[in-house]
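Input:
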Amino acid sequence: MSDTQTTRRTVLTAAVALGLPAAGIGTAAAAEGRRGPKIGVLLYDGFSLLDPTGPAEVLSRLPGATVTMIGERRGPVRTDTGATAVVADRAVSEVDRLDVLLVPGAGNRGTGAAMQNPVLLDWIRRVDRHTTWTTSVCTGALILGAAGLLRERATTYWAAAPYLESTFGVRYVPERYVRVGKVITAAGVSAGIDMALFLAGKLAGEDVARAIQLAVEYDPHPPFDSGNAATASPQLKELALRLLAESQQ
Amino acid sequence: MSDTQTTRRTVLTAAVALGLPAAGIGTAAAAEGRRGPKIGVLLYDGFSLLDPTGPAEVLSRLPGATVTMIGERRGPVRTDTGATAVVADRAVSEVDRLDVLLVPGAGNRGTGAAMQNPVLLDWIRRVDRHTTWTTSVCTGALILGAAGLLRERATTYWAAAPYLESTFGVRYVPERYVRVGKVITAAGVSAGIDMALFLAGKLAGEDVARAIQLAVEYDPHPPFDSGNAATASPQLKELALRLLAESQQ
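Output:
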């Protein structure tokens, strides 16, 4: 522990000691050389941190997959709280083809701005022409709606359901994720993880999806049982929305 | 939709149309002025994306909370796949006091390097002296162990359990999170979300924690039931570790 330099040998020693496989160390193919699905996650100012990162964690374990964070411009993109930034490694102008597009949700400010941003909407429509799957998490569904990509049914953040229905003429389905053709919408924030596992099964088979669930130890046991808006009291809903509003820029 | 400029008025209109509260728009206190818990998340090269971002999403909704990403240096910190970076907005040298410290896990390379990095270990020990809670997700427990902060019992990533027990002399407990005094360790990757809700309850009361669970719509329904290593077949474990190794740099 006396050396700040970590050599390949010491890392390999640690890897062996951890009992974990060391095969990937230093040998992972460069992203460009990978042959699995090309997954693009759209980041835009004010997105909610878990919306893209939960699915990205799951989908990045697909064999040969690349998960790329994409922004209107390259560089850091701030979340709804303003306190955290994830880097967009590619600009929309650099990305034409994706196997999977994922549009995360945001607070009011971010969702409203993205729904009115023709650069983002045009790009979403253009990329969607060639995707195998076009997906959203949370209020990302409203952005897909603004791009004209929703049909029949969808899900979204529970508080945005009336807006979804009245604006886009689709039926809100209160499930963790809803598939219509190649479009999959997920419910709020954490639902993107469930949706990503479903998508992993479609892309690589259920054995791989189950292994990814184990790889991320997703055996959820929240200490409370209050995540479902259908059974929440009006007071709890009000408090949830107030905490969101107060935490967002 | 014809204007790329999003004015405060149009955003407010969208917020009202969405049916969501607009109180936070443009009025959130600057981070420095907030009076809730100061939460610091340590980022280091090779961390696993969901480990810090799941808890950060949950904890950022605590009243008045600030969640700060902290690195050895300021700037982007890459994940285990190398494909994504989250920005460290503060360097460890800039942060002395935190109410909550969270140390995420990583792949072999990242965990092994962090366990041998005296700058990070010294900082963890120094900050821990004044925290209310010192926490880890996944193999972050091994880093707390290397810093000398584990006692009696802990949890960690399922595949790292034998290493945890043999190296630090603590008993591995296969639960979503394990509390010993002010130290809370969470199991692998996604378990950080469950742990963060528990912690939210301790920091702000169970009503707030329940509201945060609703705010992030955390009503998990994964399409499979394979996230628990205790019931996984050897074949599934092998595949999970192979997918991890192949996806990591």
